[in-house]
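Sample intake sheet
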Amino acid sequence: MSDQREGGDAEKRKLLIPSFLTADVFKKERKAPMERRLRLRRRGDVDEGRALMNPNTMKELNITMEIEAVLVGGGARERRYVFKVVAKDDVPPGEVWCNEEELRRNGIADNSIATIRAHKREQSDQGNP
């Protein structure tokens, strides 16, 4: 009689495996990051409205034409700036080079850390000629 009860319990029991012990096959693949915190550097040899970035960093962040740089200001204020981006191998991977005068005019110090992501235009702008 005890054999029947043990057999019934075995069917009801389920084995719980912690997530850190599961096989890599079952784990979801991580997506490439869509944004990264990089340093904005002032450079005199960069045209106004443009930014220079490392091509590998651009590829990693899926950046093609424009970037959006978001700087955190005092309080709850965020400052957003849009630059047309140009790939250049001389730029270190953790930096974005921008025009010196433009950054000074906007109050951005050299070596400021900003969140860099691909700029997405509003859909209403793209639909209108």
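Comment: The chain has four helices and six strands. Residues 35-120 form a domain with the Barwin-like endoglucanases fold (CATH 2.40.40.20).
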